[in-house]
Design a protein that fits this description.
The protein is flat, with a radius of gyration of 18 Å. The chain contains five helices and no strands. It is about 75% helix and about 0% strand. The chain is mostly helical. The termini are far apart.
Length: about 140
């Protein structure tokens, strides 16, 4: 139920900022609106699956509690390791370990998804948006 409420708030958040973006000049509002629409579609899809899981109640209460606390704890470890390991390595480890623990097995697809996701995020933030990200262990490998 918590997940359904959280995702419902995300949909409200997206709609509110989509409405607020209409007051921005037309030259600069297309990109934020596109991102908000994508966020809204992702939130609605997640809301659908969360509602579906809620009605089937597949996991036990202990398993759900473990997944919740593990997700929060691993996110804080990710934040703490962000500068030391660098964005790409920390993101790869975070998503790879998180997917393996939640599904209780390590698959090659987990590592592949984590690597592609970390690489795409780095490309979008560094090359498209111009955000400086910590290189960490890959400082000598990544271009400036």
């Amino acid at each position: 139920m918590f997940l359904v409420r959280t995702l419902s708030l995300e949909v409200v958040f997206v709609l509110f900022f989509l409405w607020r973006s209409l007051y921005e000049p037309s030259e600069v509002r297309a990109y934020p609106q596109a991102l908000l629409i994508l966020m809204g579609l992702c939130a609605l899809t997640s809301l659908y699956y969360a509602w579906k899981i809620r009605n089937t109640s597949q996991g036990s209460a202990d398993e759900i509690r473990f997944n919740k606390y593990f997700s929060i704890g691993s996110f804080f470890c990710y934040l703490l390791s962000f500068h030391a390991l660098g964005f790409i390595v920390a993101t790869f480890l975070f998503y790879g370990i998180w997917m393996a623990v939640i599904e209780r097995r390590l698959k090659v697809s987990h590592l592949l998804i984590a690597a592609v996701f970390a690489g795409l995020l780095y490309y979008v933030f560094h090359n498209v948006l111009g955000v400086l990200l910590p290189a960490g262990l890959l400082a000598n490998v990544l271009p400036d």
